[in-house]
Amino acid sequence: MPINLSNVSLPVKLLFSGYLMIIAIGYGMATIQILVTHGMADGKFGLSIQDIVYSYYGNRSGSHLESKLNGSMKANAPEQDRFALIQWVRSGAGERDYLDHAKAIFDTRCVPCHNADAGGLPDFSRLDNINKYTHPDSGATLASLARVSHIHLFGIVFIFMFVGGIFSLTSGVPLAIKCTAIVTPFVFLLLDIASWWLTKLNPHFAWLVILGGAGLAMAFVFMWVVSMYEMWVLPRYLRR
Fold first, then answer.
1. Which regions span the lipid bilayer (predicted)?
2. Residues pairing with 63 in the sheet
3. How many angstroms separate the CA atoms of 35 and 25, rounded?
4. Ordered DSSP codes for 102-117
5. Where in the chain are the domains?
6. C-alpha span between 25 and 11 (Å, rounded)
7. What's the confidence (pLDDT) of residue 119?
């Protein structure tokens, strides 16, 4: 009898199911992380095309600091403080005005998180560091895109290698559909990564980011549901 998900031993089912459950939770946490980072780029909760444009291409009508104050950092300071910092940037981000007015706001609202001990966050206790963010917002840097791209390529490809490996043991899925489902996430992963770089060059490619992410999600959900069904539900029907 050929080995498939409906007749593998209980330990193997538990191993596969445990992996699929943890990966599903991780996928959900990744979605939440996207919503509270990229999804707040325009200052409104929920991922939109505008969020993607701001994240990768940038909001070039204003500075990077202004984009953050009106976007993902909006909830961290009252409107009057955000307005004062934006006005300081638009008036030239001068040192005298910084010392007289802006510094106190930065020290109160920003420095508790953005300090020398914050790790990956910029240190806003120093004016020279702040000035790096007072220029027009050009979105993600090439260095950050390269870093995130290689992390996603190496990480997500392993996730779908194992998910696809488990799914390949299904018995009730036609071969053509099975092969398509297994290949689909790799195609959409490449599309997803490429869309970040294309959107950096031109905001009209932002819709490709949505398409790439949606394709990955649909392939994952399909393979996950079918695999769990054949391990735990299908054997009950076969015994009848």
1. 14-36, 151-169, 175-198, 205-226
2. 136
3. 15
4. IHHHIIIIITTTSSTT
5. 10-41+140-238, 60-131
6. 21
7. 72
pLDDT at 10 over 70: yes
Query: Residue 240 and residue 224: Cα distance in Å, rounded?
Result: 25
Q: By the 8 A CB rule, do 227 and 166 touch? A: yes
Please, where are the H alpha helices in 78-205? 79-90, 95-97, 103-105, 127-131, 142-167, 175-201
pTM of the model: 0.78
Q: Which amino acid is at 135?
A: H
Tokens of 219: 């392939």
pLDDT value at residue 56: 93
Q: Which H or E run includes 51?
A: helix 49-52
Place of tokens 């009730």: 172
- In this predicted structure, the answer to whether residue 134 has a pLDDT above a threshold of 70 is yes
> Among candidates 188, 130, 133, which has minimal Cα distance to 157?
188
Q: How many residues make up the chain in this entry?
A: 240
pLDDT tens digits, one per residue of 197-231: 999 999 999 999 999 999 999 999 999 999 999 99
| HSE-CB of 122 using CA atoms within 13 angstroms | 15
